[in-house]
């Protein structure tokens, strides 16, 4: 298939999802044209406040969006060139686990308390690889060892409650890697963990992706968490990508006032950056997204044009961009891309 040989691992284009019932007029436009790509071996971090559509995008990619209430109303999800939206459910089921896997936010509730951790990992080898119980447990122990759980051969027989939070998250990672996926989606994999353990889990994910040339989508609302591991960052707001760049350019030259706002609201690792300023106001209701730029009611720089004209996501001239295009959906992005954060935050 030469025409797909150069296709990225995952290509999401103009994805649109609604919740609610159009007949009752209570439709929430949750995804409003989300596009992003992930290549093999690349980590894309997806950032944004709660409710911006990060998880719904991931669920649509995985084919696990609840439908109804969710409805995919447009766009495309291609995995190595193959269109997944509308694909046969059996094909989707096969791809899940084998080709793409997802780690969920809450490892405690994702593990079943009545089975040993090992048995839960081994299940995939038994049912998808036809292995004996004994061989599957050996593989499970190898995976626990791979995710750096000490004494894996013993601990494989323990129950989830005997594992610490960090170890449970490691076990979830082990489970997601069992069938050697090419794409891993980690949806807030560290939110329930303390800061030191968060850093260890991030380091582990980063290492595993590099070793296996696995593509990863790392979903988080914590900019601090992704600094070390992301190759590229996409920032979501109200169901759209509002800025995307390689990680270094995004940190050095954030071009969207929303991205700048997110950066000003997290502590900097080097202790610099002065006081923390949360973004004023709240994200819009997805059943009444304001006209123009959806961020304009919260933006200190909004002008008339921002209240009427939706900015498209367009490439910027960022002389320091190290990799891909730096793109932002702000009418005045050029004004901000070279400015210091303070200049932009205080009008
Ligand atoms: N099953 C559902 N029924 C109705 N609305 C839903 C459903 N799932 C998600 N939504 C809505 O879709 C929007 C986007 O949700 P999503 O879970 O993708 O946000 P998120 O960016 O992952 O946020 P968080 O950081 O809190 O996880 C939210 O407004 C949410 O209320
Ligand atoms: Mg989420």
UniProtKB/TrEMBL annotation:
Provide this UniProt record's keywords sorted from A to Z. ATP-binding, Cell membrane, Membrane, Nucleotide-binding, Transport
Which Pfam families does this entry report, sorted A to Z?
A: ABC_tran, oligo_HPY
Q: What top-level branch of life does the organism fall under?
A: Bacteria
Q: Which GO terms describe its molecular function?
A: ATP binding
Q: Does the keyword Nucleotide-binding apply?
A: yes
Tell me, in one coarse class, where this protein mainly resides: membrane
Q: Which residue range or ranges hold the ABC transporter domain?
A: 10-263
Which CDD domains does the record associate with it?
A: ABC_NikE_OppD_transporters
Q: Does the keyword Hydrolase apply?
A: no
State the compartments where it is located: Cell membrane
| Membrane topology note | Peripheral membrane protein
Q: Which family does it belong to?
A: Belongs to the ABC transporter superfamily.
Q: What is this protein called?
A: ABC transporter ATP-binding protein
Species per Swiss-Prot/TrEMBL record = Actinomycetospora endophytica
